[in-house]
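User: Hi! Is it possible to get a structure for several chains at once, not just one? Here's what I have:
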Amino acid sequence: MNMHRRVITLVALALASVSPAPAFAQGPVVLRIADAKTRVVVEREIARAAARGLPLQPLIAKAMEGVTKQATGERIQVAVSLLAKRLEQARVLLAPSTSVAELTSGADALAIGVPGTMLKQIRAAWPVERSVAMPLDVLTELVARRIPAQHALEQITALMARGATPSQIASLGSSVQADVAAGLAPDAALDVRARGVMSLLPSPAAAAASAPSGRRQP
Amino acid sequence: MSREVDRLIERVRSTLREAPEAVPDPRLVAQLLSAVWASPKPSMLRRWLDAWRVPAFSAVTATVVAGLALFAGFVTRGVIGERPAPEPLAASGPQTGEFPVQFAAATTIDEAAPVLTQFVLNDAKAERVSLVGDFNDWSGAATPLTRLDSGVWTVSVPLPAGRQVYAFLIDGTFLTADPRAPKSGDADYGREGSVVMVFPR
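Assistant: Yes, the chains can be modeled jointly so their relative placement is included. Here is the combined structure:
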C-alpha cells in the first residue's frame, strides 16, 4: 500500500511538471470557421499534416486567409491541401533544414513556380546551420516581379557565395521592387542592383579566406 | 506493592542466573545465513523507494503540493512568467522611400528578430481599418489601424524578417491591397494583396 502511494506520488509529480506546454502545443486545432462542414474538413486536413510532422501555423494561416477572403469551403480545403504538399516537398528539397521559416519560404517559392532543383541549389549555397529563408524569399519576390527564375537564382547564389548578409540580400529584393514599380525593366533592375550589392562585399579571395571550415560552395 | 514487585524481579533474576548459557548451534547459524544470501536481492528501484519516505499527506497538503508542482511545470515550460520586455527602438526612416516604413530595434542582432514595420492607408471614408496577413492569421480583429486627424490610418507591428504578404480589411468586410506597395499574386483565392520585404537587423 505504502509502495503504491509512493509510485502514484512520483507519477503525479512527473506529470504535473512536464505536461502543461505539450498539452497546449499539440492539442487539436480548432479553427474559427463558421461553416461546420468546411471546418471539419479543414481541421482533418491539418491533423493529417500534423501527423506527417509538418508545421501547422502556415496551414492555419492559409485556412484563415480563405475565411477572410470569403472563399468557399471547397476552395479553402484545396488551398490548405496544396500548401501541405508544398511544405512536404520543401522539407525534402531543403533537408536538413526544418525551420518553419525555411519550409514556408520554400513552399512559397514552389507556389510561384520556382523549380525544386533551385531550392536545393539555394540550400547548398550556405552552410546548413545558416537559414536560407531570406534568399528563398528574395528569389520568390524576384520571380513575382517577372524575372526569370534562373537569372534570379544566379544573382542570389553569387551574392551568397560572396558572403552577403540576409539584410543585403533583402535589400536586393526591395530595391528591384522599387525599380520595377518605377518602370525599369525587371532584368535590368536585377542586374544593376545585384552589381550594387556586390560592390559592398569583400573580394572573392577575402570571402573564401573568411568562410568557416566545411562551408559548401554552390 | 513496591516491595512485592522487587521480590518478583529478584526471583526472575535468580532463575535466569541458574539457567545454562545459550550457545547458538553453528549448523543453524550457517543454514540461516545461507537462506539469507540465497533470497533474491531487491532491485535498485525497490531499495530507493524503500529508502524514500513519503509523509502521510492530508487532502489539503496533497492539493497544495500538486498545485505547486503544476505551477512549477507551467513556469519551467514558459506558459507562465514574464515576457521579455521589448527592446528600445531607434527610428531608421524609410528603406526605399515607400511605405511600409521599418524601424530597427537598437540592439537587435538576431536575424529572426521581429522588425517594427509601419503601415499606412489613406482612406478618409473608412470607419474601421485593420491589417491582415499570415503574421496574424488574417484576423481582422488582431491589428486595427489608428485614424489620425488627417484621415490617414496607420499601425506599426513587429514582423518577422522576409517577404510578408498583407492586405487591409476596411469596415470588417472589404479587403483591399495597399496602393503604395507591390502586389502579390494569389493563386489560391484569387484576391491579391501586397508585399513588403522586411529587413533583418
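The first helix of chain A runs from residue 2 to 18. Chain A has two domains: 33-93, 98-209.

User: Great, thank you!
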